[in-house]
Write a structure and sequence with these properties.
Layout lengths: L3 H29 L2 E5 L1 E16 L2 E5 L4 E4 L6 E2 L4 E6 L2 H25 L7 H21 L5 H20 L4 H25 E5 L4 E4 L5 H4 L10 H9 L8 E6 L4 E8 H4 L7 E6 L5 E14 L2 E8 L11 E17 L4 E5 L18 E10 L2 E12 L3 E6 L12 E6 L6 E2 L3
Antiparallel strand pairs: 1-19, 2-10, 2-14, 3-9, 4-6, 5-8, 6-7, 8-9, 10-13, 11-12, 11-14, 12-13, 14-18, 15-16, 16-17, 17-18, 17-20
């Protein structure tokens, strides 16, 4: 056992020496390579500031009735006055009956359509084509997020399938279909009478956008109370949310305008003007840039200024938003991003196509130009640029020259090198 220890020690020393040589070679190459390169890519830089605040809307709470509640509206759906929002069932049997009523209603509608279409018998291929087109239409609406015609599109699919089965599957005649339709209507009438006594409809007291979320801010923070807000009171509202209201089944957002109240650094708020537009970048559910209006610039406390923004766009997409940290964008700069160390100031002698100065004589006067050296087919080629924006360790630039001398996204540029000249062949 003792004879093995020197061998293990020797192997460990060999491995350590190998690793040290490898890293030494890597460091040597890094620092003593004749040139280093980087990739050019398209980039947009923003002059912006983060803003923390709360989304504010005019809302009306909907009290939750006793019984088994079934909300029939989706989040962000628009409803008109008197339209159904929810159903309240007296017991579980009433809820089960309602499910059967909905199924029977659908079946009656499909049968009525099938009966109306049985005058001319199409071929099975034509009916299959109708089914395919109905499914494609439904799939396209789903992909686009357009659910406005959802019910009619589903009905079209089911009706086409039912008609295909009635015409070529079950061998039913128009008389058979009519008899079946009368039986279903009779069952539906009986169930509807029973359900009317055990089911209550909850309707909208006024037009609005429905939301399931009731977070307690509805009464504490309204468009009217925004006028009395200060940076301190807004921060208190942010730090102490009220929590969900169990006594409400939801709310109706009754105004087309929504607001975002935020505390901004005093210097940033000074760049805004009441009544002028401002771009706010939201994340989360909204996840987009929204152009809002500076509605109010309030008081300043401890270096923070209260600013209220307003908008009448994307209301149905903001129903779940409340506490948000957004990016207030003052300006944007688009171009090509390059490392700072790649930018070079070069001296050159301007000349015309004949190689002489513009006055027709040789000139020793020098001019300056700013640009980078691009690595093109093993050669260093100068690409002139203009600076659009300066970041901490990068520039956003735009190309100056045209044609072959144009700097493009995807080009490789030299960030470190000595003795670089336009057209110089690089070895390495």
């Amino acid at each position: 056992m003792k004879q093995g220890k020197p061998l293990i020690t020797f192997v460990i020393l060999i491995l350590a020496a190998t690793v040290a040589l490898y890293f030494g070679y890597y460091v040597y190459n890094f620092f003593y390579e004749p040139y280093h390169t980087a990739q050019v890519y398209s980039y947009t830089a923003h002059d912006s500031v983060a803003a923390e605040g709360l989304v504010v809307r005019q809302a009306r709470l909907l009290s939750s009735p006793s019984g088994i509640l079934e909300v029939t509206r989706t989040e962000g759906e628009k409803v008109g006055i008197g339209q159904q929002i929810a159903l309240v069932y007296r017991d579980s049997q009433a809820q089960a009956n309602q499910t059967v009523i909905e199924e029977l209603t659908m079946e009656v509608e499909l049968l009525e359509e099938a009966v109306a279409q049985t005058g001319d018998l199409e071929s099975a291929a034509r009916l299959d084509e109708d089914i395919l087109q109905a499914v494609v239409s439904l799939r396209a609406s789903y992909a686009l997020g357009d659910y406005t015609q959802l019910r009619s599109q589903v009905m079209e699919v089911k009706s086409s399938v039912l008609k295909r089965g009635y015409t070529y599957g079950d061998g039913l005649t128009v008389t058979d279909l009519s008899a079946q339709l009368r039986e279903l209507k009779s069952q539906l009438a009986v169930l509807s009478r029973q359900s009317a006594q055990a089911t209550t409809r909850v309707t909208a007291p006024e037009p609005g956008v429905f939301s399931n979320l009731v977070d307690g801010y509805e009464s504490r923070l309204t468009p009217e109370t925004l006028r009395q807000l200060t940076p301190a009171s807004l921060q208190e509202l942010i730090d102490s949310p009220a929590g969900e209201d169990s006594g409400s089944m939801g709310k109706l957002i009754t105004s087309d305008t929504w607001y975002f109240a935020a505390n901004l650094p005093e210097q940033s708020a000074g760049r805004l003007t009441v009544g002028r537009p401002a771009t706010l970048r939201f994340s989360g559910e909204l996840n987009r840039d929204v152009e809002m209006t500076v509605d109010r610039i309030g008081p300043t406390q401890d270096g923070k200024t209260l600013v209220v923004f307003s908008s009448n766009r994307y209301l149905t997409l903001t129903t779940l938003l409340r506490h948000q940290t957004v990016e207030l964008i003052f300006d944007s700069y688009s171009g090509l991003r390059i490392p700072k160390e790649a930018l070079r100031l070069e001296k050159y002698q301007p000349s015309d196509s004949s190689g002489t100065s513009s006055s027709g004589t040789s000139s020793s006067a020098e001019s300056s130009r700013v640009g980078v050296y691009a690595l093109i087919n093993g050669r260093a080629e100068f690409r002139e640029v203009s600076i659009v924006h300066e970041g901490s360790d990068y520039y956003v630039v735009s190309p100056v020259a045209a044609g072959r001398k144009l700097l493009r996204a995807g080009d490789t540029i030299i960030t470190y090198g000595t003795g670089l000249q336009d057209g110089l062949l690089l070895e390495g």
